[in-house]
Design brief:
Helix content: 25-40%
CATH topology: Ribosomal Protein S5, domain 2
Oligomer: single chain
CATH class: Alpha Beta
Structural class: alpha+beta
Number of strands: 5
Strand order of the largest sheet: 1-2-5-3-4
Largest sheet: 5 strands, mixed
Radius of gyration: 18 Å
């Protein structure tokens, strides 16, 4: 029984997954998927690569996520699962690449600049 360990990132979120053939159980931080991600859209995002290649329910996945928010964590997990699927079967790679699941999204939050309220937002101007 081979367990594959992969990592996925999005914004400041990092997802480390352990994937092995099994019954299709997905746990996130030692909790059920629907407990960690109560919003259904995030659950769908995590399962997208499995649904795309038609292997939903064939692998047990243990996900450890930290950093960022729920959307970033879900997309980081999606990337890690996609990478693991490619290692299990190289035939999945073209379909996953076409959907963009293997591409690291480089967008990060811009840093706050001195003399500004946020990264680009200036303080309110008062004429008088």
């Amino acid at each position: 029984m081979d367990i594959i360990n992969k990592i996925g990132r999005r914004k400041t979120s990092v997802a480390r997954i352990y994937m092995a053939p099994g019954k299709g159980e997905i746990t996130v931080n030692n909790r059920a998927l629907d407990v960690h991600f109560p919003f259904e859209l995030h659950q769908i995002v995590v399962k997208q690569p499995l649904t795309l290649v038609g292997v939903e329910g064939n692998y047990d996945i243990k996900i450890n996520v930290d950093g960022g928010g729920s959307t970033g964590q879900a997309e980081a997990a999606r990337m890690a699962i996609s990478r693991a699927l490619c290692e299990f079967d190289a035939e999945h790679r073209p379909a996953l690449k076409k959907e963009g699941f293997l591409t690291r999204d480089p967008r990060m939050v811009e840093r706050k600049k001195p003399g500004r309220r946020k990264a680009r937002r200036k303080f309110q101007f008062s004429k008088r």
